[in-house]
Structure formats: structure tokens, C-alpha cells
Task: inverse folding
């Protein structure tokens, strides 16, 4: 910065600063501090988030391969996109992702809301048991995934063993079976993230003032009416916020599932991100996978925005 | 509820009991996997793959020894020629006809996790505090757009950004270095740090600083001497959230690190023993890796809600 611009900034700041403070300003002006404080963050985000994203957009129109950096590559127009949208495999991965997102959300909403209602009734506070329930969601998904493969062992694993106590199923091969593997990943995600939905529902429940229920009691409302007309509308914004955060995370899901099933058996649990990693870092089809990455990003962003609009309608 | 009670908002004792029992049973079922990880760490390898799964077993430190060492199988004659074992862990390993050949890479990987975790947390909280103060107190053009932009960087799938970062780091010589990973995790954590910390700054009354400025402090002095001390609790909570994220992160670590700067999450799943995964060693590694997070979660329980919603819900 030249002295001239500093002077200009100081003059501008002096104009902007109220008289009371202005005569006491020494050193940096408010505006200089604001930019000094904010710009490192913006610059870092531009360099390590936005620049790479733009680079991905560029690469998606080429046939570049990252494992052959010296090789000539050329602009191929929209060919990568055409190939992706015309490929049947992609729809398979998208379906696996949709199955995962829809079922984890559905089950976790029911369990999380149910748990929150129970905790609210039983404890009215965050006690020892609530804290215990919260632990799984803070753990490393990759390590959790690894360890669940051990719990899921058909012969020696405790999951199959416990289920066999209730009914004689025989060894249950959660990870090796085509029909069970999609549910194996839903179960582990539910174990990890139900507490998240529960915590937000609990916040919603605590925001309901008691007098609403007292008024409902005077009007002789039954418990179902109280739930439907008081509890649910008040909890819904919190629940929807939880689903927004978790839905985005699960759409991008990689670490937990890759360690749990690595996409198998076959490609039954090959979620979009897992396939993307395979195309980009095993087959090294950088251009093609960049196009896939952009499609995923646009999908997340688009669905997220539609959802936020719905959320705003509910909260207003 | 057939009997109308006096106060409608407090549940009847019986309903309370049933609810309590249901919550406690959920918590206990949810704890089984974690208790099982902890127990498996103290099992011997044969006990870890026995049928039926053993709940009662003779505790052994073999998993922990295997986690921290590399071993090779030797003949009886060779082991006898070595003389009596010098330490308890030598003795433990020799029972399986093995000798310790050196330390494993687990300690290195764990240390990498510590360095990268703390480094990126420090940077993210430092930059985040400055930016949060800037956004909270000053008129910044396009403030809402900038804040939304900061948040939206969180929506990108990590693999999507990993492709160009992989190329960029290769050019800059940052691939597989702690510095590269610290920079990357700092960026990812910044969105959380800015949003959370802005909430904490917003809660501090402006009058404090204005009074300090009237008393002769400059803006910067007021920030350092008045605002920062008030933010201590918020900064601590934010730091723990950033630390947990860096600690748990897997996708970038898997794709961008290998021999040198690899952290523990991509390493723990590949602890191989003879004939497949060495489950007691994996469990021992998982226990040591998850334990700090469990402790932090208990410490953070009252700030948890705020942290996981980017400050959107504050109770």
C-alpha cells in the first residue's frame, strides 16, 4: 500500500467515523481494520476453494489425465457431460445415493424426534444419558466404518450374534450380501447421526412455551391434537434444518461407506462420491471425473436452494 | 393420558418412568459398538475372532503391542538363540513365535494428526476471530453475500475440490506435507470458525468497546484488551470443533498424503496382521484415536448444538 492510498483511506475513515470517536482515532482507521481482518479469510477461501472449483470447471471440458501430466490434452467441449448424462452406470450410483439419503433421513427423523420427545418428557435437561447418546456423531467416520466391518462379520461379529438371540437367522452377512449391504450402511449412519436430529428436535421442543399446552388443555385438546397443532409446527423448522445439514452431508457421503463396504458387493453401495474417487484417482480420468464433480456440486447446490426456500416458508 | 393432571406440561410420574427407561435403553444399545471396540483392544487375536463372540476373556495387551510394533515370524531355534526376553512385550510377542523388528508407523501417524489438527485449528481460529470481528462490527460492502459465500464453500463434495488441489499441490511441492494439509484444513474449518465466532462477537455489547475508545484506547487496543477476553469461551468451543473436524477428516488425507504426512484415519483401517486385519490392533488404534474426541464431546456438551449448526441454533 502506498502512502497516498493510506491517506485516502484515513480521510475516508475520518468522514465515516462519528465525531465523538474521530478525534481519538490513532493508528489504523476502522475501514483499514475491517479489510485487514477480513481479507486473509477471503483470500484463503479464494485460493483453496474457489480457484480449484474454477479449475475443475475448466478440466471438465478437456480430456486431461492427472497421471500423465506431460501429455498433450485438448478441449473436448461438452463431450464429458454428454457421456455422463447418457451413461446408465451413473444412474445406478445416483440411485444408490438416493436410497442412502432417503432412508437414513426417514429413519433418523422418526428415531431422532421420538428420542427428543422422550428425553424432553423424562429429564427436561441435558443429563448424563443425553451426553452418552451424543458421542457417536463426533467420532471419525472412517474409523467407525472400519470397526463396523468387524461388528458385521457374519460368523464372529456381535451384530449377527445379537440378532440371532432374538430369532435364529443363521449367520447374517450384512456387507457381503447384495440385498443387505445397502441397509448395512443405512444402519451405521443411523447409529452415528440420529443424535444430531435428536439434538435439534430437543432445541425445538425447548422453544415451545408452556402456556400453549395449558391453553390447549383448557380447550380440551387430546394428545394427538396437541402434538399435531402445537409440538410439530414448532419443531418442524429445527427438524428441517437438521435434515438440510445431514442431507447435504449424506449426499456427499464418502468416508464411512468407503471403509465399511468400499462400494461393494459389486457396485450396490457405490455412492456418487465413491465412484467419483474411483474415476478420478484410480482410473485417472480427470476430465470426465471433473465433469461428474461439477454435476454433483450443482445438484447439491440446486437441491439445497430449493430446500432452503421450503424451510423459509415453514419458518415464516 | 386419560387422567388429566394438575399441571399439563409436566408428565405424570409413570409416563416419566417409561420415557426414562426407553431413553436409557437406547443409550445402552448405542454404546455397545463403542464398548466392543474398547474390549476388543484388550483381546488376544484368537479371542477376537472366536465364535460365539467372547464377552468374558482374559485381558491381553497384545493388540496394543502389535499396534506399536512390526514383527516377523521366526523359528523356535532362532528365538531360543536370542536368550531370555528382556521386556514384557518381547515375551508377549515371542509366545506367538514372533520377534519385534521395530516400531510401527502408528505413533508417526498419530503425531501427524496432532500436528495437523492443532496447526490448522490455530490458524482457522486466528483468522476466523479476525474475520468474525470484522463482519460483526464494521460496515463491510456485500457483507451478507460474503458470509453466504463463506458458508457455501462447505457444500462442495471434498472429492470435487480434491482433483485440482491434488494438481495444485503437486506443482507447489505441497503434496504429502504437513504444511499443505494444515493449509487445506484451515480453509475447510474457516467457514465454521467465522460463522460460530461471529455469533459470539455479536453477543458482546458494543458499548464495552466504545467506552474503551472513549477512555483513550485505539480500535485495535479495544479489540485486544476488551473483546478478546470476552470471547474466550467462544474461541475455546470453536477451537474444539475445528480440532475434531481436522482430527476426523479422511477424504483429503487419503488422497493427498501417503508416506510422509499421512494422518491416523487413513492408517488405522490398514493395520494388517497375518491373514487379514489384526482386529485387536485396529481396536487398540481406534480406542486411542477416538478417546480424545469422547472427552472433548463431554466437555463441549452445552455448546454442541451451536457448533453442529454453524451457530444457527443457540438454545
Result:
Amino acid at each position: 500500500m502506498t502512502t497516498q492510498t493510506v491517506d485516502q483511506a484515513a480521510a475516508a475513515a475520518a468522514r465515516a467515523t462519528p465525531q465523538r470517536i474521530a478525534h481519538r482515532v490513532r493508528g489504523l482507521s476502522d475501514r483499514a481494520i475491517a479489510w485487514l481482518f477480513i481479507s486473509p479469510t477471503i483470500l484463503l477461501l479464494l485460493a483453496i476453494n474457489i480457484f480449484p472449483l474454477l479449475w475443475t470447471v475448466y478440466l471438465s471440458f478437456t480430456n486431461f489425465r492427472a497421471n500423465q501430466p506431460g501429455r498433450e490434452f485438448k478441449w473436448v467441449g461438452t463431450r464429458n457431460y454428454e457421456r455422463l448424462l447418457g451413461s446408465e452406470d451413473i444412474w445406478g450410483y445416483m440411485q444408490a445415493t438416493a436410497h442412502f439419503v432417503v432412508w437414513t433421513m426417514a429413519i433418523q427423523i422418526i428415531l431422532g424426534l421420538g428420542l427428543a420427545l422422550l428425553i424432553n418428557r423424562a429429564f427436561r435437561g441435558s443429563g448424563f444419558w443425553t451426553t452418552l447418546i451424543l458421542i457417536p456423531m463426533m467420532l471419525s467416520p472412517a474409523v467407525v466404518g472400519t470397526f463396523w466391518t468387524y461388528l458385521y462379520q457374519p460368523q464372529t461379529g456381535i451384530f449377527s450374534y445379537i440378532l440371532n438371540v432374538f430369532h435364529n437367522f443363521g449367520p447374517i452377512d450384512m456387507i457381503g450380501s447384495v440385498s443387505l449391504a445397502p441397509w448395512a450402511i443405512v444402519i451405521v449412519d443411523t447409529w452415528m447421526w440420529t443424535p444430531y436430529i435428536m439434538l435439534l428436535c430437543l432445541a425445538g421442543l425447548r422453544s415451545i412455551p408452556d402456556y400453549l399446552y395449558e391453553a390447549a388443555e383448557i380447550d380440551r385438546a387430546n394428545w394427538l391434537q396437541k402434538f399435531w397443532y402445537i409440538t410439530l409446527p414448532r419443531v418442524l423448522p429445527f427438524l428441517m434444518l437438521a435434515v438440510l445439514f445431514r442431507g447435504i452431508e449424506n449426499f456427499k457421503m464418502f468416508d464411512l461407506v468407503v471403509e465399511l463396504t468400499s462400494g461393494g458387493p459389486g457396485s450396490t453401495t457405490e455412492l456418487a462420491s465413491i465412484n467419483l474417487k474411483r474415476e478420478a484417482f484410480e482410473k485417472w480420468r480427470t476430465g470426465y471425473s471433473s465433469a461428474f464433480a461439477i454435476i454433483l456440486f450443482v445438484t447439491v447446490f440446486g437441491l439445497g436452494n430449493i430446500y432452503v426456500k421450503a424451510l423459509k416458508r415453514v419458518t415464516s | 393420558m386419560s387422567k388429566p393432571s394438575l399441571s399439563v406440561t409436566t408428565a405424570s410420574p409413570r409416563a416419566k418412568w417409561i420415557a426414562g427407561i426407553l431413553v436409557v435403553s437406547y443409550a445402552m444399545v448405542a454404546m455397545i459398538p463403542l464398548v466392543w471396540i474398547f474390549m476388543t483392544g484388550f483381546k488376544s487375536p484368537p479371542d477376537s475372532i472366536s465364535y460365539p463372540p467372547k464377552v468374558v476373556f482374559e485381558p491381553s495387551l497384545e493388540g496394543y503391542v502389535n499396534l506399536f510394533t512390526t514383527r516377523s515370524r521366526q523359528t523356535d531355534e532362532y528365538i531360543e538363540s536370542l536368550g531370555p526376553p528382556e521386556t514384557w512385550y518381547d515375551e508377549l510377542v515371542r509366545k506367538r513365535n514372533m520377534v519385534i523388528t521395530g516400531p510401527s508407523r502408528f505413533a508417526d501417524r498419530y503425531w501427524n494428526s496432532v500436528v495437523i489438527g492443532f496447526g490448522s485449528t490455530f490458524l482457522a481460529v486466528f483468522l476466523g476471530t479476525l474475520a468474525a470481528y470484522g463482519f460483526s462490527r464494521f460496515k463491510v460492502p456485500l457483507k451478507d453475500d460474503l458470509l453466504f459465500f463463506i458458508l457455501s464453500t462447505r457444500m462442495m463434495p471434498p472429492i470435487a475440490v480434491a482433483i485440482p488441489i491434488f494438481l495444485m499441490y503437486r506443482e507447489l511441492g505441497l503434496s504429502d506435507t504437513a504444511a499443505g494439509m494444515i493449509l487445506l484444513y484451515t480453509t475447510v474449518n474457516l467457514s465454521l470458525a467465522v460463522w460460530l465466532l461471529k455469533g459470539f462477537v455479536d453477543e458482546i455489547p458494543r458499548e464495552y468497546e466504545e467506552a474503551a475508545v472513549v477512555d483513550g484506547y485505539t480500535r485495535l487496543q479495544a479489540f485486544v484488551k476488551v473483546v478478546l477476553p470476552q470471547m474466550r469461551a467462544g474461541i475455546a468451543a470453536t477451537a474444539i470443533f475445528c480440532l475434531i473436524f481436522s482430527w476426523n477428516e479422511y477424504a483429503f488425507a487419503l488422497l493427498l498424503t501417503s508416506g510422509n504426512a499421512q494422518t491416523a484415519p487413513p492408517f488405522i483401517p490398514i493395520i494388517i496382521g497375518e491373514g487379514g486385519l489384526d482386529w485387536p490392533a485396529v481396536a487398540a488404534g481406534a480406542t486411542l484415536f477416538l478417546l480424545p474426541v469422547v472427552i472433548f464431546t463431554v466437555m463441549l456438551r452445552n455448546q454442541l448444538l451451536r457448533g453442529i449448526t454453524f451457530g444457527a441454533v443457540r438454545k
In short: Chain A has two domains: 3-54, 83-315. Chain A touches chain B through 107 residues (CB under 8 Å).
